[in-house]
Specification:
Elements (H helix, E strand, L loop, with lengths): L1 H19 L24 E5 L12 H10 L4 E3 L5 E3 L2 E6 L3 E6 L13 H13 L12 E8 L2 E6 L21 E2 L2 E2 L5 E6 L2 E6 L14 E6 L5 H7 L4 E3 L14 E16 L9 H9 L3 H6 L6 E3 L21 H8 L53 E8 L3 H15 L4 E8 L1 H10 L4 E7 L7 H4 L13 H11 L4 H11 L3 E13 L25
Parallel strand pairs: 1-12, 16-17, 16-18
Antiparallel strand pairs: 2-3, 4-5, 5-7, 6-7, 8-9, 10-11, 11-12, 13-19, 14-18, 14-19, 15-19
Length: about 550
């Protein structure tokens, strides 16, 4: 095995010397990397769910999606800052509605055959026209995808989306007929090979990225059940795995492992039923948001595996002029409940310094959490929403997820610490929770949804949106969303959002990748690519 690695490294080095005259210049005038990384002999295994030909555009299993990240690439990669970084795309132009993508010249498949626009069109159209594809929803607003030359692809959208390239990390494989012994042919850093009836991933000698890091051989561990990957990791057969931390049944991972967090677009938020007359008032929603200690919530109940958020975008934007404080502001919340208007600096026009209740502990628990004291009408008996009555409502949460229940309890405790507010947590099994959302039988609910990398809010706030359970309708908000998607005025959308708060963002859940400790140094995965930056991997021994 070692001999093969040395021969491969020597051949690659010789090839670069021939192409560059033994200088250090790459094909584009850049300095080429030198393969001086110590190759690791450590065992590295990856789960492989054998369910027919591995087509990365259609396979929706989490196991094979992780495997696909070693074998295939998209036009772009989504970075930790949720920007689109060029991969198979060398350059592009676009006005938000029509985009033209130029492919890089050195991108080839494992066989050495060049990547063409026809391959890209075939992969994207497969996702566009097949609802079973995990990428289908990204392309529902695509009108046409066409090859305008061997290296140019043009895509037209039915409505503007200036951030459309962020959705194009969809894996590209060779057009039909390009399978390689059960694997659709790809352009990624690794390629599959069979030796003595066992399957491995080995370096793709034709990869445009150049030399790999220290891991040059990955053993594929065949699984007959997609849910067997965790047990294979626990036995040591599998070395790398994605596993959600804030889950109904979080993995119990023991042994010597290294956990790496990745930024994500899974939004935790509080949804609102607009049939509740009290919660339908803007200043009430603003008050409830101001009372939340988001950073504390992430550090405790969300297990430090979440990034606090006031705006429904990750990362939180800079220089917006909007207060993005992640700590609770009880003074502001209490003033807003009395009808005070927020000032430009995020404070209120009222002076709360003499209010003996304004400094109450936002985490304090007042009231009985097991007593249902309100409903949709927001009825009560004391000053809470400026109407002289107590703001009383329930917070619906999925009882099957202990992390969310604990988070909901902490949120309710913060609100119950406010004068004139009474909140009860309503824990329901998942099926009942979903049924209650669909029927509108709730006041507020603790929600979680996977947003796309362009942070499209329309499912949550548009009339008829798939996640708009509370019946929110606001034409000005819809106009602001459309303007931001066209690139006209993103800041105006943020301003409108914090004024209106159609729902209350809490945090963006982070992803979790677990890897055997001592296997790789300098491991820095991207949100949707566990193999990002693999050229920088080094062996820990």
């Amino acid at each position: 095995m070692k001999q093969w690695k040395k021969r491969a490294a020597a051949a690659l080095t010789a090839a670069f010397c021939l192409l560059a005259g033994c200088g250090m210049l790459g094909g584009a005038g850049e300095e080429a990397r030198v393969d001086n990384v110590k190759v690791s002999d450590a065992y590295f295994g990856m789960a492989w769910y054998q369910s027919g030909v591995l087509d990365p555009v259609l396979d929706s299993t989490g196991i094979n999606r992780l495997l696909s990240e070693a074998l295939y690439e998209g036009l772009f990669e989504v970075t930790s800052n949720f920007t689109a970084e060029n991969v198979l795309c060398a350059d592009y132009t676009g006005d938000g509605t029509t985009f033209t993508f130029t492919l890089r010249e050195d991108a080839v498949f494992w066989s050495g055959e060049p990547l063409t626009a026809a391959d890209v069109v075939d992969s994207l159209q497969t996702a566009q026209f097949n609802e079973k594809s995990p990428y289908h929803n990204r392309l529902v607003e695509v009108s046409t995808i066409e090859a305008v030359s061997d290296r140019e692809v043009r895509i037209r959208l039915s409505s503007p989306n200036i951030n459309f390239p962020r959705l194009l990390d969809i894996p590209i494989r060779r057009a039909s007929g390009g399978s390689d012994a059960g694997f659709s042919a790809g352009t990624g850093p690794f390629r599959p090979t069979e030796e003595d009836r066992n399957w491995y991933l080995v370096p793709n000698e034709n990869w445009h990225g150049g030399f790999l890091g220290s891991i040059r051989r990955i053993t594929l561990v065949p699984l007959t059940h997609a849910d067997a990957a965790l047990s294979s990791f626990q036995t040591g057969d599998v070395s790398l795995l994605r596993a959600a931390r804030i889950a109904t049944n979080p993995p119990n991972i023991g042994g010597s492992v290294h956990t790496v967090q990745t930024e994500g677009a899974v939004l935790h938020y509080l949804g609102i039923n607009y049939e509740n007359s009290a919660l339908a008032q803007t200043h009430v929603r603003q008050a409830l948001s101001a009372a939340l200690a988001r950073q504390s919530l992430c550090d405790t109940q969300l297990q430090t595996f979440a990034t606090p958020a006031v705006l429904p975008v990750n990362p939180q934007p800079d220089n917006t002029g909007i207060s993005l404080s992640m700590a609770a502001d009880t003074n502001l919340a209490q003033s807003l409940l009395r009808g005070g208007e927020p000032a430009a600096d995020g404070q209120t026009a009222e002076d709360d310094t003499d209010d003996p209740d304004s400094g109450s502990d936002p985490e304090g628990d007042t009231g009985d959490p097991d007593e249902d004291t309100g409903g949709k009408d927001g009825s009560g008996t004391e000053d809470g929403d400026g109407s002289g009555e107590t703001l009383s409502f329930t917070l619906l949460v999925n009882a099957d997820n202990a992390f969310k229940v604990a988070a909901a309890e902490q949120i309710a405790s913060s609100w119950n610490a406010l004068k004139g507010v009474s909140v009860t947590v309503d824990r329901q099994p998942y099926e009942t929770f979903v049924s209650r959302l669909q029927s509108g039988s709730f006041d507020m609910y603790y929600g979680e949804t996977q947003l796309t990398a362009d942070f499209d809010l329309r499912p949550l706030i548009s009339s008829g949106g798939s996640l708009n359970y509370g019946g929110y309708v606001n034409e000005q908000m819809s106009t602001a969303v459309a303007a931001a998607r066209s690139g006209e005025n993103v800041a105006a959308l943020y301003e409108r959002f914090v004024e209106e708060l159609p729902f209350i963002p809490l945090a963006f859940e982070r992803g979790q990748i677990i890897i055997r400790k001592g296997l790789i140094d300098h491991y820095t995965p991207a949100p949707y690519n566990a193999f990002a930056g693999l050229e920088h991997w080094t062996s820990t021994d």
